Amino acid sequence: MSTKEDIKEEEAQIQGEAVAKEETKDETNTETTEDTKVEVEVTPTPEELLQAEKDKYLRLFAEFENYKKRTTKERIELYRTAGQDIMVSILPVLDDFDRGLSEIKKAKDKELLKGMELINDKLLAALTQKGLEEVTAKAGDVFDGDLHEAITQIPAPSDDMKGKIIDVIEKGYKLGDKVIRYPKVVIGQ
Fold first, then answer.
1. Which of 66, 90, 102, 184 has its CA 20 to 30 A from that of 120?
2. What pLDDT was estimated at residue 23?
3. What is the pLDDT of residues 122-131, one digit of tens each?
4. List of residues 6+ apart from 127 with CB closer than 8 A
C-alpha cells in the first residue's frame, strides 16, 4: 500500500462526502439549481505528508532489522549443524577408545596404556574446545526421560534403586546446549 494511493482514496472520499452534503442542502432548499456543482479539492498538509513518509520509513526500517536478525540466527544455526554432523560421526571413535582403554588396563603393559590415554586425552581436549561435552550419567542417578534414553528395565536389586539408573550402556554427549546423543541406560523397575 503506498501513501499516494491512500491520499487519493481520502480525497475521493472527502469529495464524495462534500457532494452528498451539497445534494442534501439542495434538496432542503426550495430554490435549487442543477447547474451549480461544487468541487472541493482537498490536498494533504505538509505535516500529513511528512507523517506518512515517516511511517513508511519506520516500517521499512523495522522490516530490515527483522531480516538482519533472521539471517544472523540462520547463519549461527548453520554453523552449529555443520559442527554437529562432524561430532556425531566422531562419537563411535570415542566409544571405541573407551572400550580399548578398558581392555588395555587389563594388560600388564603400562607404557601402552599411558600412550593410549595420552591420545584419548588429546582427542577429548580438541573436541571439548569445539564445544563437545559429556552428559553425565552414572549408576544410582535418578532416571530423567529428558536427559537419558532407557534401553531396558530390569528388576531393581534393592527398593532404593527403583526408578534409578542401574547401568550406563553408552555415554551421552551434548554440543553447546543441544544434546546430540542421549546416554543409553538400564533402569530399575
1. 184
2. 52
3. 999 999 998 8
4. 87, 90, 94
Among residues 154, 124, 160, 158, which one has the least CA distance to residue 185? Answer: 154
| Low-confidence stretches of the chain (pLDDT beneath 70) | 1-8, 10-38
The 10s digit of each residue's pLDDT in 74-109 is 998 887 777 888 889 999 999 999 999 989 988 888
From start to end of 45-148, where are the E strands?
132-135
Cell of 156: 531393581
CA separation for the pair 94, 120 (Å, rounded): 8
CA distance 134 to 92: 14
User: Residues near 56 by Cβ (< 8 Å), separated by ≥ 6?
Assistant: 3
Question: Which residue, 117, 98, 76, 114, is CA-closest to 172?
Answer: 98
Query: In order of start, what are the domains of the chain with their CATH numbers?
Result: 134-189 (2.30.22.10)
Kindly report the average pLDDT of the chain as a whole number.
83
Q: Is 107 helix (H, G, I), strand (E, B) or coil?
A: coil
Query: Using only C-alpha atoms, what is the Rg of the chain?
Result: 38
Q: What angle, 0 to 180 degrees and rounded to 10, lies between the N-to-C axes of helices 110-129 and 46-106?
A: 170
